[in-house]
């Protein structure tokens, strides 16, 4: 039986109440005993669950391991499987090899590398059959294959250097074909065509000039001279630009400078500064070949105006060439002025001698009288 007792204590600053419940010792013992039984029973149940779970997992492992042990192949079966695998692999390799051999190529055929030898003028040789080779050269020049066109340019050079009489009637047909090759993007073909222009200029000189500048500066696509100047001022490969420079110098050396200057003057106002520079160089080179008689009959005012524009150009090459051209013009003006003054002195001296003769005659008549 439980009882409750309560007591109040005075600690000086207030009262403290303490209550105590006192139970039966016998009942407390029973409660502890029942708690221990329940705890032991719960432990046994947990132990049984754990044993059941472990036995179930062990049974599953044994059941899965037993089929695996039963499915293990023998050594003979393993050897047979390896042999079958080898036969299948070799057969597959053979089929792939046959397919590779039978497969047709796709796309464009590979372009073979072609080496074209461009022969210098000193190493050219005469043609054996001139007429047949001339016709063959014309056909080669019209070919779309650049290697064949290069061969045609070489044949044309041989024809121009060693057989000019047979080449002269073909010039109106040859120049447009050479122009087409000069404009070609293939650098080797363009160089071969420019070398052909140099050989033609050396052979025919001023006779070739009207054919070189068909259309003039107004129609640059039809003018070979215009295309040469554009090629010289382009960003093409170095050996092409060097060959164009030599061709322009050959023109200045082999053609009548007065007629060449007339053809070059319209290009002095070209929009491309590099072209103006090449034109200025060609003008100076042509002017340096002129004689006193040619200077006297040439329109020096137009040339002086062009030189005045070029000397203020933003291209160093144009300015330097314009300075040389102005120096040549000054020398020409000085020479003409000196010739004029010398002529005046000669005329004055002759007139004085005539007057002296008249005076002597008059004195003789007076003495006779």
TrEMBL record:
Gene3D superfamilies: Leucine-rich Repeat Variant
SUPFAM superfamilies: ARM repeat (SSF48371)
Domain of life: Eukaryota
UniProt feature, compositional bias: Basic and acidic residues: 25-48, 348-369
Region (Disordered) residue spans: 22-75, 343-369
InterPro entries noted in UniProt: ARM-like, ARM-type_fold
PANTHER family per the UniProt record, alphabetical: ARM REPEAT SUPERFAMILY PROTEIN, CLASP
Name assigned to this protein: TOG domain-containing protein
